[in-house]
């Protein structure tokens, strides 16, 4: 039997991102590496959903790889969804989750810059387009 994520991945590129919100109501954002799509822009941490993974499983894996912290899939609440068409490539479907609980202290495991930002500070950053839309739509 085909896993639902494999069916979705054939038509779209499923991507997950996490809005980590600290006790002060600030968002954790990281800067994309120069040379990659949207290089130098700020975004919510996350990445692609691998075949056989649920979005929440992919989210926990990506957050561990990028920030060195542990989030439980059950602690990640689905928040927003966006899509982006790309020429001659599968469209991206980005699922944003939110978490207020995690284990460990965030660090840039892949050498990326990161920081905690209020919603207003985040909107002053050069954000990736879908992430800017997410920040505008969030009520934190």
Automatic annotation (TrEMBL):
Molecular function GO terms recorded: 8-oxo-7,8-dihydrodeoxyguanosine triphosphate pyrophosphatase activity; 8-oxo-7,8-dihydroguanosine triphosphate pyrophosphatase activity; 8-oxo-dGDP phosphatase activity; 8-oxo-GDP phosphatase activity; metal ion binding
Question: What cofactor does its activity depend on?
Answer: Mg(2+)
Which GO biological-process labels does this protein carry? DNA repair; DNA replication
One family from Pfam that matches here is NUDIX
Task: Indicate the segments forming the Nudix hydrolase domain, all copies.
Answer: 11-140
* Superkingdom, natural source: Bacteria
The EC number(s) attached to this protein equal 3.6.1.55
The record's listing under SUPFAM superfamilies reads:
Nudix
User: From which lineage does this chain's organism come?
Assistant: Bacteria, Pseudomonadati, Pseudomonadota, Alphaproteobacteria, Sphingomonadales
- Segments passing through the bilayer: none
What is the protein name for this chain?
8-oxo-dGTP diphosphatase
Q: Identify the keywords attached in UniProt to this record, alphabetized.
A: DNA damage, DNA repair, DNA replication, Hydrolase, Magnesium, Metal-binding, Mutator protein
Under the heading CDD domains, the entry gives: NUDIX_MutT_NudA_like
Kindly state which reaction or reactions the protein catalyses. Answer: 8-oxo-dGTP + H2O = 8-oxo-dGMP + diphosphate + H(+); 8-oxo-GTP + H2O = 8-oxo-GMP + diphosphate + H(+)
Tell me the InterPro entries matching this sequence: MutT-like (IPR047127), Nudix_hydrolase (IPR020476), NUDIX_hydrolase-like_dom_sf (IPR015797), NUDIX_hydrolase_CS (IPR020084), NUDIX_hydrolase_dom (IPR000086)
Protein family according to the UniProt entry: Belongs to the Nudix hydrolase family.
């Amino acid at each position: 039997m085909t896993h639902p994520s494999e069916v979705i991945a054939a038509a779209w590129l499923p991507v997950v991102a996490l809005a980590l919100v600290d006790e002060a109501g600030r968002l954790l954002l990281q800067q994309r590496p120069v040379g990659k799509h949207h290089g130098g822009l700020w975004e919510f941490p996350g990445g692609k959903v691998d075949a056989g993974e649920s979005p929440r499983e992919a989210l926990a894996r990506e957050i561990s790889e990028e920030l060195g912290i542990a989030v439980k899939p059950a602690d990640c609440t689905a928040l927003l969804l966006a899509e982006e068409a790309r020429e001659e490539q599968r469209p991206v479907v980005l699922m944003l989750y939110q978490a207020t609980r995690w284990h460990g202290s965030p660090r840039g495991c892949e050498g990326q810059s990161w920081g905690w930002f209020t919603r207003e500070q985040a909107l002053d950053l050069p954000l990736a387009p879908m992430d800017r839309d997410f920040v505008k739509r969030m009520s934190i």
